[in-house]
């Protein structure tokens, strides 16, 4: 009851009066599917125009920020953190540590040639790259920096733990997405947690399955439109461009332009927003095939470049690596906190590390299964084990490099971790400069800017695809709302640089958490199917085909026993 009352208060604070949510939902429900989806998308986008700081009084803006922080703290409180970790632990135990025992096999399988007879639109490699395009983004550079700045070096440990457990979660959700996917007459694949909820959970609990599916699709649309997909990525891109431009001109003031009703911004930010919107539009309009083709080239190339650059920076400061790990583990458990503050410090490190870790690798969110469902495979397990490597590459590899660089940078120059002096991308940028003093600053800033831009750009593309599939589900397969949504998405990219940064990241965290809830519930309900499919595949029997009805046709189940 306490949670319900708190939500009511929050709604009241945002609008100034009680929001008649039920009436809004009833109105949307009464509209035709197509109109309802369009109206919903427009409503979502319209709501975020209120976040423009320069068009508000400071008191209103402060009030909205405080409300958003309260919601964020509630959504990402201990209950959700425990739920995500507990789900990862539970699935790890149920699957006998599949993320460890089958990791070598999974990496080998990435480059397996597909001769699937069960349909699909993409190779396993392109499907993984499409998923990685959405996961390897600003979270790897900016998100890690934010986590360490707010939660201390110990936040990196909790990112690792969330990733290792999250690999089992990622495996499970992608496996189910394949198993419950649908294929249209033209070969177009429809799959993701909304179908897992509707067809999997819904087969046993019809109402619950449908509610979970709709909630996931709504939250997925929100995450894409103004969460991970647009505002946070665009803000990071334009900030990186502006930071690099300032480095080039030696700290001199950049030329500015005044936008009526919005504010004054540097010319490079305005140009960057226009170019970014145009490039994104050229790819997005081409659909899944074009997105996957672009991702298959950019993602591996830039991941390798950033990894090599990071390894080089850390190697040049190898004498500080041991101290860095000491700070990470000490910070994770609050050992360096003042007397009586160890528990509090640990909770903060845990909260920020897990939240940013999930923001980066998206394990448990249910996003990667949307891309995984399009893979050309004969058995759901085949893509499940490939998809779980995405979490490994994202967090254990890429985020670790960023984290070590920042922690070592903090050892060399403690000011780097001072939130009053450095925030977001500036932290990572300063850390690399501290670790590589002999390399010209312009070169370092350019490499980091290029990596962040391309990481963030592919994330924009990937999340457009995810949110389009959510819209397609909400509109029951109608493509007109999807096409309209694409232009709303492109518009959101264009206005991204002019949104308030603090609000952007807070909103991204909120919708991330909300999206995870229906997905995790479906994983827990369907865990028995996950175990059966896994045991069936690795035993070599391979009785269960994609789409096998476990609820109503347990014949093969008896055969397996």
Describe how the helices and strands are arranged:
Layout: H1 2-15, H2 21-30, H3 33-47, H4 58-75, H5 78-94, H6 98-101, H7 103-109, H8 124-135, H9 138-151, H10 154-179, E1 182-183, E2 189-190, H11 193-204, H12 206-226, H13 231-248, E3 256-259, E4 263-266, H14 267-284, H15 287-315, H16 321-332, H17 342-361, H18 368-372, H19 380-412, H20 425-435, H21 441-474, H22 480-495, H23 501-525, H24 527-538, H25 555-560
Antiparallel strand pairs: 1-2, 3-4
Q: What can you see in these coordinates?
A:
The protein is an all-alpha fold and 561 residues long. It has one domain: Amino acid/polyamine transporter I (Up-down Bundle). 73% of the residues lie in helices and 2% in strands. The chain is built from 25 helices and four strands. It has helices at 2-15, 21-30, 33-47, 58-75, 78-94, 98-101, 103-109, 124-135, 138-151, 154-179, 193-204, 206-226, 231-248, 267-284, 287-315, 321-332, 342-361, 368-372, 380-412, 425-435, 441-474, 480-495, 501-525, 527-538, 555-560; strands at 182-183, 189-190, 256-259, 263-266. A two-stranded antiparallel ribbon has the order 1-2. Strand 1 and strand 2 form a beta hairpin. The chain is globular.
* H/E series: HHHHHHHHHHEEHHHEEHHHHHHHHHHHH
List low-pLDDT spans.
Answer: 1-57
Per the CATH scheme, the topology name is Amino acid/polyamine transporter I
Count of discrete structural domains: 1
> Would you tell me the structural class of the helices and strands?
mainly alpha
Shape: globular
Helix count from the secondary structure assignment: 25
Give the amount of beta strand, in percent.
under 5%
């Amino acid at each position: 009851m306490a949670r319900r009352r708190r939500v009511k208060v929050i709604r009241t604070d945002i609008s100034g009066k009680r929001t008649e949510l039920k009436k809004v939902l009833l109105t949307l429900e009464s509209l035709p599917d197509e109109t309802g989806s369009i109206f919903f998308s427009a409503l979502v986008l319209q709501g975020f125009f209120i976040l423009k700081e320069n068009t508000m009084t400071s008191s209103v803006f402060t009030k909205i920020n405080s409300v958003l922080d309260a919601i964020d703290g509630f959504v990402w409180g201990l209950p959700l953190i425990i739920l995500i970790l507990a789900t990862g632990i539970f699935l790890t135990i149920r699957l006998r540590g599949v993320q460890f025992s089958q990791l070598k096999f999974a990496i080998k399988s990435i480059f397996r040639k597909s001769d699937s007879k069960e349909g699909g639109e993409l190779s396993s490699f392109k499907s993984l790259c499409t998923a990685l395009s959405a996961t390897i983004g600003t979270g790897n550079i900016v998100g890690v920096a934010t986590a360490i700045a707010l939660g201390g070096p110990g936040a990196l440990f909790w990112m690792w733990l969330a990733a290792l457990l999250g690999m089992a979660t990622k495996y499970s959700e992608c496996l189910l997405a394949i198993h419950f996917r649908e294929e249209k007459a033209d070969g177009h694949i429809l799959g993701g947690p909304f179908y897992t909820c509707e067809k999997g959970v819904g087969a046993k609990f019809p109402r619950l399955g449908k509610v979970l599916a709709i909630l996931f699709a709504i939250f997925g649309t929100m995450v894409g439109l103004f969460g991970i997909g647009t505002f946070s990525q665009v803000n990071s891109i334009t900030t990186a461009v502006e930071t690099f431009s300032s480095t080039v001109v030696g700290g001199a003031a950049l030329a500015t332009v005044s936008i009526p009703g919005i504010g004054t911004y540097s010319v490079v930010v305005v140009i960057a927003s226009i170019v970014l919107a145009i490039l994104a539009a050229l790819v997005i309009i081409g659909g899944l095939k074009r997105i996957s083709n672009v991702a298959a080239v950019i993602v591996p190339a830039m991941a390798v470049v950033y990894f090599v650059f990071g390894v080089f920076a850390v190697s040049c400061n190898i004498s500080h690596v041991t101290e860095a790990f000491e700070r990470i583990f000490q910070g994770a458990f609050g050992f360096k906190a003042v007397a009586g503050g160890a528990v509090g410090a640990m909770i903060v490190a845990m909260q920020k590390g897990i939240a940013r870790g999930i923001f980066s690798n998206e394990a448990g969110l249910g996003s990667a299964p949307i891309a995984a469902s399009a893979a050309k495979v004969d058995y759901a397990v085949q893509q499940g084990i490939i998809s779980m490597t995405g979490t490994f590459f994202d967090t254990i590899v890429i985020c670790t490099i960023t984290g070590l660089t920042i922690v070592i940078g903090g050892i060399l120059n403690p000011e780097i971790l001072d939130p009053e002096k450095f925030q977001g991308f500036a932290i990572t940028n300063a850390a690399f400069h501290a670790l590589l003093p002999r390399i010209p600053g312009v070169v370092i800033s350019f490499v980091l800017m290029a990596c962040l831009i391309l990481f963030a750009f592919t994330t924009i593309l990937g999340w457009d695809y995810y949110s389009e599939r959510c819209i397609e589900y909400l509109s029951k397969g109608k493509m007109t709302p999807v096409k309209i949504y694409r232009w709303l998405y492109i518009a959101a990219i264009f206005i991204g640089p002019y949104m308030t940064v603090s609000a952007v990241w807070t909103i991204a965290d909120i919708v991330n958490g909300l999206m995870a809830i229906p997905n995790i519930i479906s994983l827990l309900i369907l865990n028995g199917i996950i175990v059966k499919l896994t045991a069936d595949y690795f035993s070599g029997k391979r009785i269960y085909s994609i789409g096998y009805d476990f609820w109503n046709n347990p014949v093969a189940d008896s055969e397996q026993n």
